[in-house]
Specification:
Elements (H helix, E strand, L loop, with lengths): L2 E3 L2 E3 L2 H9 L3 H5 L6 H17 L3 H15 L1 H4 L20
Antiparallel strand pairs: 1-2
Length: 95
């Protein structure tokens, strides 16, 4: 089975991440062995992207949380149960 995002085929998890971000993952995480100059240039580019799209971090965290919630078996996490909401007591009624 093939997976496409837009017109791009995603073959690996890295492909999905890159297509979701719109940038290579290395831009945000860095690359092993990068020089100080390369790191500075990468960080400048990342700052420019964030300046153009200040909601990007929140959007990505929301997407990641949804993917993890929908597929906990892929991430070896245990879903937490949410406590029941307590209703405030009404006046004149014992809780």
């Amino acid at each position: 089975m093939r997976a496409y995002i837009g017109r791009q085929q995603a073959i690996s998890a890295e492909d999905f991440a890159e297509l979701a971000l719109g940038t290579p993952v290395e831009l945000w995480l860095g690359a092993e062995g990068e020089t100080d100059e390369e790191r500075a240039a990468r960080e400048d580019a990342a700052r420019d992207i964030l300046a153009d799209n200040p909601n990007l971090p929140d959007d990505l965290v929301r997407i990641a949380a949804q993917v993890i919630e929908d597929n906990p078996d892929l991430f070896d996490v245990i879903p937490l149960t949410r406590p029941a909401r307590r209703r405030p007591a009404r006046k004149g009624v014992a809780a």
